[in-house]
Design brief:
The protein is mainly α. It is 65% helix and 3% strand. Strand 2 and strand 3 (245-250) form a beta hairpin. Bound molecules: zinc ion (ZN). Residues 266, 270, 296, 299 line the site of zinc ion. The site of zinc ion (ZN) has 4 residues, from helix 10 and helix 11.
């Protein structure tokens, strides 16, 4: 009986998910609480657990249960949730099965060494020492693509891990449209010569008071603190062990309060997605996120469309002013709004504004695609990087540390990850456009600090479905059409034309 078989499969994947949750908890502890000397023992513990998770997962089909269900799926004998469960478990199983253990080990050892070399190379701003490690990683990632198999480009096989169903060609087309809009639009903004003095919002912000304000915002967003936590780490992140235990972190800058606010809103957006997954289905794909791009759309819609909007600050700015009279007491909301939305090409991706952020992503996508397709020499990378930064952003890269070496991703073998950030922006604009249609008073609610209606809408339209839809299927289901870059470019055009008087 198929239903009984699905139940059996669910029991097996649930056990694996519990093991994976234990791993995640260790990962969280590593970044939040672990003392420095703990790292050696910790990495042995996590590596053992990771092996156990992998072995358990490979045993899932030992008696042919999954293969039988896959046959039923292919024959069209499964529908709805059952079909989604089998489709997704099979997808992961199929990929993992194709990668021999020796290969996985070699990749893990290489990236672990490469990460340390990258840290040193970045500090010393010397691409040369990292170069042989990146060459090795690219070679292994190409091998991974060959082992897994692909259609047009080996890049497809790598992108597929992070953004299932998306390929290099489609990504190139979509990001190309975004680039064709953003490069000339940035030029117009520069020519407008509007001066915005961002130093006016710098000050001396005690961390305890910042924490209180961030918690206030997160609670207004309906982040459930009885099913989650907020802590501090060097790099902000969101992690979940279960939909009812979802944790976020942020980092505080004494001088710049907007840093922690932006990252808290972003991570809380991710966390609302995780908390909104149906916990009764924990351990099955029905309680998992769809793709990194969709995940990112949930953080970006809160961080940007909401958290950088005039409406949002109509409610929160008086609160900010009363908690931090210095420097906000005498600064008008309009000016504050322009400052937090200032467009200025910069060298560092994570510090860039809403518009130029995408250009950072596009140049990385173009480079890594060529890297994997074998169309460039790794030794030429710094020059290629610097030229693209000049072409797209109009600025000179003074050194490798602020150029090619700034991101951790490649040293960890994450090639194909970058595009999901911009895809997230594109999805977020299309979803938000739809939310505005279906919630006619959305702006009015946001300006009164009522953020729950949007969270409810996102929950009902996106979160509760888990992985029942593919990313493109979800976009169609929610908005009635395929992913369309126009929603995002229009959003950018309207917002920044108004700020810069274009
Ligand atoms: Zn994110």
């Amino acid at each position: 009986m198929t239903l009984v078989d699905i139940e059996k499969l669910n029991i097996r994947t649930k056990e694996i998910s519990h093991l994976a949750s234990a791993l995640s908890l260790l990962e969280w502890d590593t970044q939040v609480y672990m003392p420095e000397k703990g790292s050696g023992g910790r990495s042995e513990t996590t590596s053992l657990l990771r092996t156990l998770v992998h072995q358990r997962f490979m045993e899932i089909d030992a008696d042919g249960l999954l293969s039988e269900l896959k046959k039923k799926l292919d024959n069209g004998d499964l529908g709805g949730k059952e079909a989604a469960i089998v489709r997704e478990v099979w997808r992961d199983f199929e990929r993992e099965r194709k990668l021999p253990e020796a290969f996985v080990k070699e990749l893990a050892q290489t990236t672990s060494r490469a990460h340390k070399v990258w840290e040193k190379a970045r500090k010393e701003s010397d691409f040369g020492t990292f170069q042989p490690y990146l060459e090795k990683i690219v070679e292994l990632k190409r091998k991974e693509a060959d082992l897994v198999g692909y259609g047009d480009s080996p890049y497809d096989a790598l992108l597929d891990v992070f953004e299932p169903g998306m390929d290099a060609k489609e990504t190139g087309r979509i990001l190309g449209e975004l680039k064709d809009f953003a490069v000339p639009f940035l030029e117009k903004i520069k020519q407008a010569e509007v001066s915005i003095d961002e130093k006016k919002i710098l000050g001396d912000f005690p961390i305890e008071k910042q924490k209180e304000f961030n918690e206030f915002i997160a609670q207004k967003m309906s982040f459930d603190l009885e099913a989650g936590r907020m802590d501090v780490s060097t790099h902000p992140f969101t992690i979940n062990f279960h939909p009812q235990d979802v944790r976020i972190t942020t980092r505080y800058s004494i001088e710049d309060i907007m840093y922690s606010i932006g990252s808290t809103i972003h991570e809380a957006g991710h966390a609302l997605y995780e908390q909104g997954l149906p916990h009764e289905h924990f351990g099955t794909p029905l309680a998992e996120y769809i793709s990194l791009g969709i995940h990112e759309s949930q953080s970006r819609v809160w961080e940007n469309q909401i958290g950088k909007s005039k409406e949002f600050w109509q409610y929160f700015y008086p609160e900010l002013q009363s908690r931090f009279p210095n420097p906000f007491k005498d600064l008008e909301l309009d000016e504050f709004y322009r400052i937090i939305n200032k467009v200025e090409p910069s060298l560092i991706r994570v510090e860039s504004d809403e518009l130029t952020y995408n250009l950072h992503i596009i140049l990385r996508f173009e480079i890594e695609k060529q890297m994997i397709e074998g169309d460039l020499k790794i030794s030429d990378l710094p020059d290629i990087w610097n030229q693209k930064v000049k072409d797209y952003l109009g600025i000179d890269v003074p050194n490798d540390r602020e150029g090619i070496l700034q991101d951790v991703h490649w040293s960890g073998g994450s090639i194909g990850y970058f595009p999901t950030y911009s895809l997230g922006n594109l999805y977020s604009a299309q979803f938000y456009n739809q939310a505005q249609k279906e919630l006619p008073d959305l702006s009015g609610e946001v300006s009164k600090g009522e953020l729950a209606p949007l969270r409810e809408w996102l929950r009902e339209k996106i979160h509760i479905h888990g992985k029942q839809f593919t990313a493109s299927g979800l976009v169609k289901e929610v908005t009635g059409e395929e992913l369309n870059p126009n929603y995002y470019t229009q959003y950018l055009q309207e917002k920044f034309s108004s700020i810069y008087g274009l």
